[in-house]
Amino acid sequence: MTYATSGALYAEVVETARLSPHLVRIVLGGEEMPQYRPLEVADEAVVLWFPKPGEDRPAPTTLKDGVWGHHDPSTAPPGRNYTVRSFENGRMTVDFVVHPGGVAGEWALHASIGDVILITRPRCWYEPPADAKWVLAAADLTGLPALARIIEECAVDGPAVYALVETVDADDLAALPATRCNARSVDASIGTGNGVAPGALVDLIAAKLPELAELGTGYVWYSGEAAQSRAVRKLMRKEHNWPLTHVQSVGYWRADAEHWNETFEKVGGDQLVQVYFEAIEKGLSNAEASEILDEEYEKAGL
């Protein structure tokens, strides 16, 4: 089945490299990879599906009720969302944060040439509005690949980019591009967030805003830990009254995932999620629906 039909393709590891103490780069290729159609947006992300123990490749997606996916829980492989660092000449580069116990990170750490994974269709969130004079882009390690692309791809005649990054080790900053085009500054907080300490990005964003406000209309983009993501959205929407079109805050992971999942089950989280889908059905945007869901989560103690 082709990628155009199923939205999935198998990819093989063709290169591996250790970028920094907490980042591993994997380059994916193979016969099917040229079928991939990139979105060409800086925070373009795909779902990567990894082989289960004892398997040499993940189970393929199947068609059920008009939807392609892994419909059988007994055979469904583990999958995680990852940013496409680059796609060129039929090869996709993905940077992985490596830490003990992480399915994707452990796979990347031990990946060998020829190992096979499954990739499904991309999505993206980064969309500075036409009136933005500047972009404030903030990310922890998980959002660093997307932040790197924002810095690397910002146009000379586009909005100026001011970056905030939170890493475990200063050496992790080596994953950022040396050429910064229209990126005016890259400020780093070392040793905060990332599951090792309380996050600092919300406070750093708040501190940077008065300086940038003097430059005119801006756009704030955040990717990283989910609780900080919600706090960023609340900061911009509730405290500064920014429109949704000028704020994008995406939670890639949760520092308190185990506790959050337990609470989610106790409060009937699946029913709360329906609020999101109902909003979408009413014609609201993804950002509007996400904000409504955030409010429901907060009411439920999530």
Can you describe what's shown?
- It holds the Pfam family FAD_binding_9.
- This is NADPH-dependent ferric siderophore reductase.
- Residues 6-129 form the FAD-binding FR-type domain.
- The protein is an alpha/beta fold and 302 residues long.
- 28% of the residues lie in helices and 30% in strands.
- The chain contains 8 helices and 14 strands.
- The protein has helices spanning 3-6, 103-110, 144-153, 201-213, 226-239, 257-266, 269-281, 286-299, and strands spanning 8-20, 23-29, 45-49, 62-64, 67-69, 79-83, 86-88, 91-97, 116-123, 134-139, 160-167, 183-190, 218-225, 247-253.
- The strands form 3 sheets. Strands 6-3-9-1-2-8-7 form a 7-stranded antiparallel β-sheet. A 5-stranded parallel β-sheet has the order 12-11-10-13-14, sandwiched between helices. Strands 4-5 form a two-stranded antiparallel sheet.
- Helix 3 (144-153) links the parallel strand 10 and strand 11.
- The radius of gyration is 19 Å and the shape is globular.
- The mean pLDDT is 92.
